[in-house]
Design brief:
This protein is an alpha+beta fold. It is built from 25 helices and eleven strands. The strands form two sheets. Strands 1, 2, 3, 4, 5 and 6 form a six-stranded antiparallel β-sheet that branches.
């Protein structure tokens, strides 16, 4: 033993440290990194098969899976659209817009997964911001923080709460009530809202990414094929006009207004054709000299004039999606989804080179030409791209009311201890399917598999820390640092959790810190409950970096933000929340 820790304990610590490093420095999906870490722990004997299986079969995984079906039903039935329609309206000031936005986002997040709520609000905020003439960057960060704060209001509001409540039940045999944390979390949320409002003038006013695409004339070139041009009668490939240095032929507009897009290589060229290229303008214009083309007398390729069967749409690349870190020319993405990449914007500035040759990164904004209904109808596509302009027409009707009632009954049955959390969520998911508020196909596609994997891995990490005696050593260390003071120990616990949650997912941080919090409380003879509740609140304060939470990553590109925008605005709010937690938790639970 070294420093009181066994070999398996050191293996666990080293694996987790490497996991933190890889999460911060690589673009590999966190769930894959976590699965790899579990494989190392299993092969080295730091965990056994029973501990591994217990994570994937834990109550928190099953509850979250059932909850995913309930959330998909609420979205598909139009219940969320009804809330947005009747709440946001048209406020006259930035302050009023924040109040109208943050409260519904937080309340929805208390019963729905915070990432789902944020995703739904991104496209809503972009269209809403245009109506009220406020930059989306002034609204997206407050909305994201509001969903993180709102998620702490109930045991089912966010994965960390579900994980911690499940682990607490395993350890003590007592189930936390759905609203066990509601009052202190609500007070902390109000403090957070007040901080956001207080510092609202420091919210960055970034150019909305799609503003770079408002006019297509500066990054597309339209050339006219003269009637007597030698290329007339040849195919695009024979004439060498399909892929040219610095650009790509994306559309042909015939003299009779017929639009051909995508353009096949065997398409014949006719006199009077308008050839529309996207990419590096200077290089494309060289075609005038080399191919005997002329400038078109009317630019018909614009957002307003594009053919009704194809339209320009803006979307942001999602973190760890299939486009993150790849060049479009190296994939079949365009062909598979009947799309054409026209331009790329990064941090509000259009990249002036051939779009298909750009290595795409999470947060990049893409201008795509595609069929009007291709964006959010495909759940698989929505995992890779977040479209700003949703074309989904959600019908608000009887199913909206039914799904809302099912959700309400689920919440009430848990609140009044009629059903356990597990029973209530499974029955609610089943009811949503039987009442056709959600189709089985959409339920399967809408399942957040990445989140489920992360929750399962998180539970196993927590068990590895506990089983290998790490928590005992840390508890003794915390006891020495705090000198037996519960308040100092609580402060050390909260600060540590708040720091780690900026580099780990909050689910993993929750699972790691639960046994530490519980055993530290027991070491000083204190009630573990206030330490557990403080952990719930602390791990959800992922405000200081865009990578601290999937919620932040979802708005990173959509708001045209820079990395520094998060810590400049989020760090003061994080510190204020620390003070709020340190006051509210001891006040309500005692120390």
């Amino acid at each position: 033993m070294i420093l009181g820790l066994t070999a398996n304990a050191w293996v666990t610590i080293i694996v987790l440290v490497i996991l933190v490093y890889l999460n911060a420095r690589t673009r590999i999906a966190p769930e894959f990194l976590s699965l790899g870490a579990l494989a190392v722990l299993l092969l080295t004997g730091a965990i056994n098969e029973q501990q591994l299986l217990s994570g994937f079969g834990s109550e928190s995984v099953i509850v979250t899976g059932a909850q995913c079906i309930v959330i998909v039903a609420l979205l598909q039935s139009g219940a969320l659209a009804w809330v947005v329609k009747h709440v946001l309206k048209r406020p006259s000031t930035h302050l009023k817009s924040l109040l109208r936005l943050m409260f519904p986002a937080a309340m929805l997040s208390s019963v729905m997964e915070d990432l789902t709520v944020t995703t739904a609000f991104v496209s809503i905020i972009h269209s809403w911001a245009k109506k009220i003439k406020i930059a989306p960057s002034k609204l997206l960060i407050p909305a994201a923080y509001a969903t993180l704060m709102g998620g702490t209001l109930t045991i089912i509001g966010t994965p960390p709460n579900i994980i911690i409540s499940s682990l607490y039940a395993e350890r003590t045999g007592e189930h936390l009530g759905l609203l066990s944390i509601t009052i202190p979390a609500f007070i902390c949320m109000l403090v957070g809202f007040a901080a956001i409002i207080l510092f609202r003038n420091k919210l960055p006013e970034r150019k909305s990414p799609e503003e770079e695409f408002a006019s297509t004339g500066d990054y597309t070139v339209e050339l006219l094929v003269p009637t007597e041009n030698p290329a007339v009668g040849q195919t695009i490939e024979e004439a060498g006009l399909n892929n040219v240095p610095g650009g790509r032929l994306i559309e042909i507009v015939r003299f009779d207004a017929e639009v051909i897009s995508p353009v096949p290589a065997d398409e014949f060229i006719l006199g009077g054709d308008h050839l529309v290229y996207a990419g590096e303008v200077d290089e494309i214009l060289a075609l005038k000299r080399s191919k005997g083309l002329v400038n078109a007398n009317k630019h018909v390729f614009s957002v307003e004039e594009v053919d009704l069967d194809r339209k320009l749409r803006t979307a942001t690349v999602k973190y760890n999606g299939c486009l993150d870190g790849v060049k479009m020319q190296d994939t079949n993405f365009e062909d598979e989804n009947n799309m054409i990449l026209v331009a790329v914007s990064r941090m509000g500035d259009r990249i002036k080179k051939s779009p298909r040759e750009i290595e795409l990164k999470a947060g990049d904004t893409l201008l795509l030409e595609c069929p009007p209904g291709s964006a959010n109808d495909d759940d698989t596509l929505s995992r890779d791209l977040l479209f700003f302009d949703s074309n989904d027409t959600v019908v608000i009707g009887k199913k909206s009311a039914v799904s809302g009632i099912v959700m309400l009954l689920m919440v009430l049955s848990v609140c009044f201890n009629i059903l356990s959390l597990l029973e209530a969520t499974i029955l609610a998911a089943t009811a949503m399917l039987l009442l056709r508020c959600c189709s089985p196909e959409r339920a399967v596609k809408g399942m957040e598999w990445e989140i489920l994997i992360m929750i399962a891995c998180s539970v196993v990490f927590g068990k590895a820390i506990e089983a290998n005696g790490i928590t005992d050593v840390l508890a003794k260390g915390a006891l020495a640092i705090s000198n037996g003071s519960p308040l100092i120990m609580l402060l050390v616990l909260c600060i540590s959790a708040m720091v780690l949650t900026e580099f780990f997912s909050n689910a993993v941080t929750a699972a790691i810190f639960f046994p530490i919090a519980f055993d530290s409380a027991m070491a000083i003879g204190s009630d573990p409950l206030p330490f557990i509740m403080a952990t719930m609140l602390a791990v959800s304060t992922s405000y200081a970096t865009p990578f601290g939470s999937p919620v932040n990553l979802e708005i990173y590109g959509a708001g045209g933000y820079r990395f520094a925008d998060f810590y400049r605005f989020g760090l003061p709010i994080k510190l204020i929340m620390l003070v709020a937690i340190m006051i509210v938790v001891p006040l309500f639970y005692g120390l």
